[in-house]
Amino acid sequence: MKRILAAIALMSAGIACAVPAPYPVTINSRAQTAPPVVVYRGNESVYRLSFTDGDVASVIAAGEIPFMSWATNNAAAVNSTSSYAVVAGTTGVVDFTFSPASVNFTPGAYIYEAGVKSVTGNNRVYRQGKFQIYGSPVGSGVAAVTWATNMNWASFTWQNLPVWLLASNTNGWQVGAHSAWITNETDAIALAALATNKVVRWYEPIPEPHNWAEWDGMTNIVIYREAVSGTNFVVTLSENFADITISPTKPEWDTYVFPFVWSETWTGTMSSDDPAQLVLTGIDSALWTGTASSYPVNLLPANAGAQGTATVSIASFVYSTNVEYRYYLPTNAIPPELTNLDQLQGWLNNLYAGKGDFTNHTSTASIHVPIFIGTTNALPLLANRTNGVLYVEIP
Questions:
Q1: Sheet holding 108-117, edge to edge
Q2: Domain match, 310 and 384 both
Q3: Are 328 and 338 in contact (CB under 8 A)?
Q4: Same domain, 237 and 290
Q5: 281 bridge partner residues
Q6: Closest by CA position to 45, among listed 104, 89, 91
Q7: Dihedral angle over CA of 175, 176, 180, 186, nearest 10
Q8: How many other CB atoms are found less than 10 A from the CB of residue 65?
Q9: What is the domain range of residue 118?
Q10: Residue 174 falls within a domain, yes or no?
Q11: Is 217:196 a contact under the CB 8 Å cutoff?
């Protein structure tokens, strides 16, 4: 019986030793290179690295992250990483494990590097060494190696990162972490304003005639039209321009910008006819006239007292903004693929289909309002007209 028990004990000891112990490697920061290591393709490989500075153990302090990775060469942009377990931080002993997939690569001589990521987030490579991969039939069928562009930082604890690098658990315009992530804003009042005042604009594909829409992020869309309310003209005189009724007299300016109707010694007027008649008057009623069918307009002498010519061109326009439509939406959701005003208007027309004609409109007190068709599909009015704007909503 004792012999049987002894045999069983020997068999158990043999089974316990079937998995090889971690291969010991000393990484000396004072040496020229790290010792060469050998792996077999598609096999798990475990190395016990002892980090030293000469004859003194290099302590792995709290917060420092040891690493061991291999790459095809020391100029490669990617590498294959291992997992680690600190055996004894005070003596700088760490076990690194390469999974079968992490070394499933064409047999050959490559490089590895071992080191520590400091508490300040900096990589410190102790030394590089030769990483020899040999072929192994038993390693066939293993998943392909996954290359990383840096260390396997997924297991690291990141600290003191800026807010805009933190992950967000929300999406769209939800309040909370996502708003802070976008704006780097932490003030509660500012975040509340961001959540309730999300103005979005859509412009026409071609910026004429200056239409755009604004959305408050909730259920209110306003479409604006920017109309020309005035025109500034530039008047340029020829070198020989003068009123010679009494004596040759010329303005103190050669070029001037103003509305064509102005009040000074030299005056200009424009008729309301189409095309308009432009008249420039001197100090003694000498006239220069022209027809404004298009600009620039060349004004020519109209009697013997006028000499030279004057050219009238458009210098700039004065715009005023009118509210064209104001829509109330059933929800605060707008398709994100709408990128311009034409697309938005088409979406609104479909949304309001059968409720009224929003393509044709009439002007009421300079404000455009929808024309309702019949009585059965007319949109209900919300209260009275406010500032000339008709409020409507989808029933």
A1: 37-40, 123-134, 108-117, 65-71, 80-81
A2: no
A3: no
A4: yes
A5: 267, 287
A6: 104
A7: 120
A8: 20
A9: 25-155
A10: yes
A11: yes
Give the count of alpha carbons within 13 A of 25, CB side only.
30
Task: Verify cis geometry, omega within 30 degrees of 0, for the bond prior to 209.
Answer: yes
Token pair for residue 358?
């929003």
Nearest to 118 by CA among 78, 60, 77, 52: 60
Q: Which residues have CB under 8 Å from 218's CB, separation 6+?
A: 196, 198, 332
Strands 357-364, 297-301: pairing kind: unpaired
Residue 266: how many other CB atoms lie within 10 Å = 19
State both tokens at 275. Answer: 């095309």
State the total domains in the chain: 4
Q: In a 3-state reduction of DSSP, which class is residue 94?
A: strand
- Angstrom distance (rounded) from CA 359 to CA 348: 11
CB 379 within 8 Å of CB 355: yes
Same domain, 213 and 330: yes
Q: Which of 358, 362, 368 shows the shortest CA–CA distance to 389? A: 368
Mean pLDDT by 10 residues, the chain (395 residues): 47 56 93 93 94 92 89 88 90 94 92 90 91 90 76 50 46 41 52 57 66 75 78 91 86 85 83 87 87 91 92 85 73 74 81 52 34 32 34 35
The answer to whether position 80 is within a domain reads yes
Are residues 276 and 353 located together in one domain of the fold? no
Any idea of the CA torsion for 211, 216, 217, 221, to the nearest 10 degrees? -50
**Residue 393 has what pLDDT?**
36
CA pair distance 45, 131, nearest whole angstrom: 12
What phi, psi does 182 have (nearest 5°)? Answer: -75, -45
Cβ neighbour number for residue 371 with a 10 Å cutoff: 12
pLDDT computed for residue 198 by the predictor = 56
- Report the b/e string of 114-153 with b at 16+ CB within 10 A: bbbbeeeeeeeebbbbebebeebeebeebeebeebeebbe
The first and second tokens of residue 315, run together, are: 């210098």
